[in-house]
Write a structure and sequence with these properties.
Length: 305
Amino acid sequence: MRAQFVLSEIGVGLRRNLTMTFAVIVSVALSLALFGGSLLMSDQVNTMKGYWYDKVNVSVFLCNKSDAESDPNCAKGAVTEDQKKEILADLDKMSVVQKVTYESQDQAYKHYKEQFGDSPLAASLTPDQMQESYRIKLQDPEKYQVIATAFDGRDGVQSVQDQKGILDNLFGLLNGMNWAARAVMALMLVVALMLIVNTVRVSAFSRRRETGIMRLVGASGFYIQAPFIMEAAVAGLIGGTVACGFLVVARYFIIDHGLALSEKLNLINFIGWDAVLTKLPLILATSLLMPALAAFFALRKYLKV
């Protein structure tokens, strides 16, 4: 009988404050959708880091005849065969180096033509203007400075470049976007909490006569508070369910179908459905507990039980 009464009171409360309940559902849904989206974006960035950092190379570019005339680092002339052998031998001795690949001037010219064949500059270049290089795969991409320290400024070396620096700029941008989404999410959570507190306050005020009678007949504090807490929890759970729906639909239509980014952006290793599905229980639990706790603390102030 008591459970039936509590459930009936929940229905009455939700209908009485239908507009504010709808506002709570929408704000909770948006804030938790942003929360889930930020978690998924963090997973995506980490996945991309693991994928791309595993492929980055450190390039040791060697001096050619053109560099000897224009580049201060190559003031002693183009790299010699003995210098190339010494550089390769030293690279092979380094424990941080996993693999070394030599790229000749002809190979560099071919790769340049494949990537930038439409550029006006490509028509004026010749193979002898390209630089020989050693492409170095590191055991740990963070150890770039070891290579730079060992070979920067060495005779025959024009420059040492780390591809990871380019990726760091990209991931810095993605992380900045993720933090911006989290800031908006935090703002929406605050709005949702304020709406929940205000809704509970209005609901308690509109039923002050019933709660007064319940106190007079000896009802416990929890029994009086339960309908209000459950109303907030139900509204939050509906919002959380909507947020989960947003994430599932977004993953389906943006990544797999519709925009189909997984097909159009083959270079990006997108996170799978398992990453999305593991976030849904967390979102639902948050949507249930957050409004319930907010209502509980609001009732201590606005409902004198």
